[in-house]
Amino acid sequence: MNAFPFFEYRNGELHAEDVSLVQVAASHGTPTYVYSRASLESAWQDFNHELQGRDALVCYAMKANSNLAVLRTFARLGAGFDIVSGGELRRVIAAGGDPARVIFSGVGKSEAEIAFALSQRILCFNIESVQELDRVAAVAVSAGCAAPISIRVNPNVDARTHPYISTGLRENKFGVDIETAFALYRRAARLNGVRIVGIDCHIGSQLTDPAPLFEAQDKMLEMVDALAGEGIAISHLDLGGGLGIRYRDESPPDPRAYMREVLRRIGQRRLRLLFEPGRNLVGNAGVLLTRVEFLKTGDVKNFAIVDAAMNDLLRPSLYGAHHEILPVRDIGAAPRRFDVVGPVCESGDFLGKDRSLATAPGELLAVMSAGAYGMVMASNYNTRARPAEVLVDGRQVHLVRLRERPEDLFSLERIPDCLAAR
Ligand code: LLP
Fold first, then answer.
1. Residue range(s) defining the domain that contains residue 138
2. Secondary-structure breakdown of the chain: helix, strand, coil percentages, each rounded to the nearest 5
3. Total tally of structural domains belonging to the chain
4. What's the predicted TM-score (pTM) here?
5. What is the pLDDT of residue 2?
6. 227 and 299 share one domain
7. Gap from CA of 242 to ligand 1 centroid (Å)
């Protein structure tokens, strides 16, 4: 299986769809995030394939990649969106997405965010605590409406993924345990300002074994049945996101096979199904294109110093995540082993360690699988302007985010009068 079917070598140059990445770098510079529209659409089709004809809504977890062009791509395909802030809701609206297909997750929704989301008539608030339930109800009462809610259940299932991206264990801050969830449903049923519509869980990210997802699903289904017995009707089941992708040699479940099993476990229940996939829809649809500045060779190690850094793509530094790094051109030289590092003043600044690469100063490298949690986690550390973003569509390259200028980075800062220049 090729993990990056929309990025392939043609005539010795790595292409995104029909565009050579050499050409992208020549027109837009580096570092640049490059997304493939066909790859986004293909991932969407794969995820939705088994859901045809079902009452289901896939809400793209836009935290993975919230560029407006990416959002618009999914909105045109009928996507809903899973948001975690008022800012994300504003992006959905700016991208032409439908607020009526938005679900609002996250443990710390502010009153202002709740009021704004209510005014936009979103589909559902995923409630993560009793405090939040009461806050949402109070805001809705003062707005003269009732907020549609789900309780986010933490089913105490081990997602067996990186601890930083595991969310379904009791020790995590997310959701409420099963007993508390029952108590919250009973409370919500009596509360003015909320209307129970669903139940929700999300146990972690980059799951390559689907067993924990099914275990969580079964616990949710038991709860749906038990709640029905108490006269509390649940109309939608939100199974969260988390389906992994291939970065290197993982064998994540095929989305269609995963979905067939989900549907089998639903059985005859008349439940609307919601999903919150992020990474699965965008991860392998993007690369970070970077240029080699220097090759610094030594007795112990060789470094390929490139113009992208941990501020542009944090995953390797933060999680020890592996991203394949491919030379954009075949330069016909023998490969050597390099740590691929950026210019940021931190030893933790690396994109890849101990990689076999045939490269040279001035050559381009593509850091693969950078479509999810790449640009969205970029920072301006070291006053580095964040990369440009382009969307490739067949032979066309569209600039979808301008490269920042250094002046942009301090334009919101002010020097107080008391520090007047002498
Ligand atoms: N729903 C909720 C409530 C979430 O918290 C997340 C991700 C998702 C859906 C989407 O999960 P996905 O389908 O993408 O696995 N920055 C980390 C990943 C953090 C995920 C946070 N929550 C990384 O780079 O691996």
1. 105-277
2. 35, 25, 40
3. 2
4. 0.97
5. 76
6. no
7. 6
User: Parallel, antiparallel, or unpaired for β 286-297 and 32-36?
Assistant: antiparallel
168 touches ligand 1 (CB under 6 Å): no
Which residue has its alpha carbon closest to ligand 1 atom 16?
373
Answer whether 206 contacts ligand 1 (Cβ < 6 A): yes
- Regarding whether 116 and 259 lie in a shared domain, the answer is yes
Q: Say which residue the tokens 């996939």 belong to.
A: 277
Name the catalytic one among 59, 124, 145, 345.
345
- Residues 90-104: pLDDT tens digits? 999 999 999 999 999
User: What is the pLDDT, as a whole number, of residue 1?
Assistant: 54
Tell me the CA distances in angstroms from 141 to 90, 114, 138, one per residue in order: 23, 12, 5
- Ranges of residues in the chain whose predicted pLDDT is under 50: none
Q: Is 242 in the pocket of ligand 1 (CB under 6 A)?
A: yes
The answer on 214 and 131 residing in a single domain is yes
Does 319 lie in the same domain as 269? no
Q: Is the CB of 128 under 6 A from ligand 1?
A: no
pLDDT digits (tens, 9 = 90+) for 131-149: 999 999 999 999 999 999 9
Picking from 127, 125, 105, the residue whose alpha carbon sits closest to that of residue 115 is 125
Pair (222, 290) in one structural domain: no
